Amino acid sequence: SLVQFVENARVRLGIPGIGLGIVQDGEVKYAGGFGVRDIGRGENVDASTRFLTASITKPLTSLMLAKLVDAGKLDWDMPVVQLLPSFRVGDATLTQRLRVRHLLCACSGIPAQDMEGVFSGDEMDADDVLGVLAGIKPTARIGELYQYSNLMAVAGGYLGGHVAHPGLPLDKAYDRAMQDLVFDPLGMTTTTFDFDAAMQGNFASPHATTIDGDTVVADMGVNRMSIVMRPDGGAWSNVEDLTHYLQMELADGLLPDGRRYIGSAPLQERLKGQVARGGVEQWYGMGLKTDRRQGVLQVTHGGSMWGYQAEMTWLPESGAGYVLLMNADAGVQLRGVFADRFLEVLFDLEPKAAAALAILPSSMDAERKAHRATLTVPLAAETRQALAPVYVHPVLGTIRVVSEGSTT
């Protein structure tokens, strides 16, 4: 079964905790957890356990924009600068040509540029994010090349917030719009962008694998970049809330009680392929990936932050979907094999996922050991002495090198 497969994978891959939700034919068939929230504390994961969901926030942000389209407050093909005058990219002509749909399509011609956020995201505000975007020049024409831009997705969320609540600061307006248009009407009572509040009570700590193969609780520091980048990947949520979202998607905009939450047209527009992702019948829509490689439409999005992995997939033509939340970097390995296993169970296909899972631990260990062999720990004295005490970059900020004994 899927439940047995997940628990087997959790143990084999060394993932401390997993949340799993499965929806089929309008019903939540499974919502539960496996393992622990924190290897140091031992509390069990359940359907209510909050995880940082990373980029599966993008479909939620695009849903908020779709609600504004449904309400007649914007159109997918309206110029971005008409709605958000502070928006621009590093090319004046492209700035004027970009439409709302281009902010979430990974098709705008704007390449990925994330290191400013990685280095200084915890010190940035919404205007700083738009300032970084203003300096990025396109590397392709609109629709020509799949380029996954987190910054463009953030701009899309802030645009929606500004349209909904023009009197509020961009980040506060986005939070309010998501609460009013997405979380509240879908009954997503636990989902939040409040980073500190999310890490209280029933939440899963992030975990990483050291270079020596040990699973440890990861530092949360770098993940704080997701606060300012939250339209792209900053939602904290759980299986209970995300299965509510899946039910709505699979019901083409209807709520479980039969009421219409959103019109079909703006909801489904998000699924239309805006740019090819490089494979046969693989596309990126607006904050969503679509795939017909095996003859059935699959809609999906994954997410990765330090110590967290997430995957959300649904099959509109088959009435089924799932959400997978994990509190370890190793969870990235489970995302692919679980997707295969889900299809095997749903369509009674030849079982191959279990065999693929069986070889993963040894291949992961071999890769880690090969990487470990290239490293010297602790740092060699001559290498440490050659380092400057401070490195400064005009965009990325400052790195200070501190040595205490043999530790650097």
Please describe what this structure looks like.
The protein is of the alpha+beta class and 408 residues long. It has 16 helices and 14 strands. The protein has helices spanning 2-13, 57-70, 80-83, 92-97, 115-120, 126-134, 150-164, 170-183, 195-198, 225-228, 230-233, 239-250, 264-269, 331-347, 353-372, 381-386, and strands at 17-24, 27-35, 51-52, 207-209, 215-217, 236-237, 275-276, 282-284, 289-291, 298-305, 308-315, 320-326, 390-393, 397-400. The strands form four sheets. Strands 2-1-12-11-10-9-8-7 form an eight-stranded antiparallel beta sheet, sandwiched between helices.
Give the mean pLDDT. Answer: 96
Helix content: 25-40%
Morphology: globular
The share of residues in extended strands comes to 15-25%
Alpha-carbon Rg, integer: 22 Å
Please count the beta strands (DSSP E, at least 2 residues each).
14
Q: What letter string, H or E per element, gives the SSE order?
A: HEEEHHHHHHHHEEHHEHHEEEEEEHHHEE
Q: Major beta sheet, specifics?
A: 8 strands, antiparallel
Query: What is the tally of helical segments?
Result: 16
Head-to-tail CA distance between termini: 47 Å
Q: What is the structural class?
A: alpha+beta
Low-confidence stretches: none
Order the strands across the largest sheet as they lie in space.
2-1-12-11-10-9-8-7
